[in-house]
Fold:
Amino acid sequence: MDLIHTTKRKRDSDEAITNGIDLSLLEEIEKSQHSIESVDIKTLKKLVLSFERRFHENIAARLKFPENPEKFADSEIELHQDIENMKILAGAPELYPELINLNAVPSLMDLLNHDNTDISIDVVSLLQDLTDEDVYDENDEPVKMLVDCLLENNVLECLVNNLLRLNESDPDEVSAVYSTLTTIENLIEVKPAVAELVCEKTKLLRWIVGKIKVREFDSNKQYASEILAILLQTSVANQKRLGQMNGVDVILQAVAMYKSRDPKSLDEEEMVENLFDCLCCMLMPLENKERFLKAEGVELMIIIMNQKKLCYGSAIRALDFAMTNYPPACERFVDVMGLKTAFPAFMGKIPTTKNKKKRSKEELEERLISLVASLFGGVLRGSRRERLLSKFVENEFEKIDRLMELYMRYANRVKEESERLDELELDDLEMDEDEKYNRKLESGLYSLQLIAVILGHLWTSDHPRIRSRIELLLKQQKLTKKDVKNVLQEYHDNIGDLDGPDEKEKAQLKIQRFIAAL
Structure:
């Protein structure tokens, strides 16, 4: 970064900026900057012509005077100004195809590797503006064309290579880190496949892991956590890739800092939430569940719950992901006294936190219902199963009472949604069965189905007092076992084959056994 501070001091000098530039050209460009409406193809061609000229002049000056920075300082100031001038194009994205045709993109990519980091930062800032979400919302196709052209010219590699050389002890370069991450986020927004491409082709994941490992909080650590969540949320490949980089352990160590203390600011709070989002995404592949278990993630989440700090609800969510379809995590949960921690929450004794985005009590209830259903599916025999069942017997069957209370609440909500959908169909709003089913799932049908599954497990436990309690509560609510069977049947009929046909058949057989027993 040989001329950063020299060039910045000289940028404000009109004499230096205009030295050697066609003044009439600059005047025209400056006029166009004042009015977005004035940007047209003629203006674009002038901008690109000026930029390309300064670009090549700077290359020539650096080659001619490699040991004498003062000889090429002015050309870099002028190049900076031309890059700044091109930002006006963000107001006219319909001109992006012409920008591509003028072959300006390869030159911009070359400048991302410029010896003067100031120049590469200028280009990052320009790319951020050209791909901004506001531009994309209004002009989809031209922005997609630009992004495709950028990708063809290795923008991801150039951006990340530049990111790796930035020095975050310099305030300007800290800002450049943020701009780089914003640009990558913009590219993903325009073309979701970029989320996997950037992890395949660059060292971005490794950079983010290094950032998250730093104990001190700063805005770029927060943004890195947000970008990581974006990279992981829709990509199993990225989830597995990060798992192979010891990512599960890194994220657990990062959230462990907040097991007994709350974040000090709203931004830090946002970062912690992002980290838990990353953890939950990571816990989808089986191999990462294994890593979570080996790293004592179950124990850490229980500790966080017991501390009753801001991360309480996030820990429940992570446990839900870890235990879904993974019996070893369920068994470990029972072994480390997780039942004692989870069931007070299941009973509605959820601590209040000062989280501005605190999870609603209802959302936590749904997570806890899922967690208990996973326990019954994962702890099938022996003393662990007895300990789980005993929870539903103790204190005069209060947890079965609670289960039935939740069953009625979700059943009523699903019934209301079904009636509403029927009314919409009467108003000639066509809706296929899949859409109707998804609407009902969103209104609480999935939680209702899981409650019915838990009731199925309790019923088939062959515990006479448990059966008697369930029958009594059904009778009190003017329900029959057939009502529960109907919920289970709908669940059975809609089990997908995401985990493969064998797993689908296995899941359907289990539900069929509950239906037969009831």
